[in-house]
Amino acid sequence: MHTPLKFPNSPEGKRVLLVRQECSKVLKQVEQLTKEIRAKAKGSIVYPLYANKSYVKASKEHESALRAYYMATGDESQLWFPPIPRERWDAFQKSVEKHFGKIAHDLNSKLVKILPWIYGFATAHMIAIVRVWAIDRGITVLFVSLRQRKQGEKVDICDEIETGDIGLNSIVMFQNPNGWNLNPEEISDEALKQHAEKMLEYGKSFLTDPNADWAGLRERLRQEREKLLAENPEWKKYSRH
């Protein structure tokens, strides 16, 4: 769907052209920062990259612009290096809609397609994201997360990636240390069904209750993180929080 580009004077067309310009500008920043960090770093540049605030900021701006462009146009030509092959996009979408679309509908919400491998929905109290994530060396994982939504907060769903979200696995283990038994590397209809079931079993209060214990959940994660850093002090220089 490329219609907005054929009508650049329409509101949709102006939005798309602006997003494309922003995407191009920020991508150049990302490329320049990568060159600079690569020139300085010894060995792997992954940790130095993600410890660099300018790089992280520019990367997020680029990703946000790309997602906004795709959501406005449906143009797949700019989607490079997808975490799942294109031939699996339709099947993945059907599974997400079947299992998480129903949850969204039952909560008077609507599932939104952010990218062919990222979907989300929001309620008055939280934002949920379902995504396939490429982590390293061709390894992909299924990651479902929730974020608390502040009262009256406006949400731009295309920006709801890594903005204070908490993994479903952490939400499950907060309530039941032995409750998480899913393999994140399995990306199938059955895996999506199991994640949806875990969300309903352990995440119900976070989905619907304005008084859900987000503070307790965040404190538990903070303690776990501090423990990991204490056990691995070399990680501290790569920590962004």
Layout of SSEs?
Blueprint (H helix, E strand, L loop, with lengths): L2 H4 L4 H30 L5 H6 L1 H21 L15 H18 L5 E4 L2 E5 L3 E11 L2 E10 L17 E2 H8 L13 H14 L1 H5 L5 H18 L10
Antiparallel strand pairs: 1-2, 2-3, 3-4, 4-5
Helix pairs in contact: 2-4, 5-7, 6-7
The assembly state of the depicted protein chains is: single chain
State the major sheet. Answer: 5 strands, antiparallel
- What's the helical proportion of residues? 40-55%
Alpha-carbon distance between the two ends: 40 Å
Q: What sort of overall outline do the alpha carbons produce when their principal axes are compared? A: globular
Approximate strand percentage: 5-15%
Number of strands: 5
Number of helices: 9
Number of domains: 2
Low confidence ranges: none
Secondary-structure-based class equals alpha+beta
Q: What is the H/E string?
A: HHHHHEEEEEHHHH
Overall pLDDT, averaged? Answer: 84
Read across the widest sheet, the strand sequence of neighbours is 1-2-3-4-5
Short description:
By secondary structure, the protein is of the alpha+beta class.
Describe the structure.
This protein is α+β, with helices and mostly antiparallel strands and 241 residues long. It has 2 domains: 3-78; 89-211. Helices cover 51% and strands 13% of the residues. The protein has a 5-stranded antiparallel β-sheet with strand order 1-2-3-4-5. A hairpin with a 2-residue loop joins β1 (112-115) and β2 (118-122). α2 (11-40) runs antiparallel to α4, α5 runs parallel beside α7 (189-202) and α6 (168-175) packs across α7. The model has no long low-confidence stretch (mean pLDDT 84). The radius of gyration is 19 Å and the shape is globular. It contains 9 helices and 5 strands, in the order αααααβββββαααα.
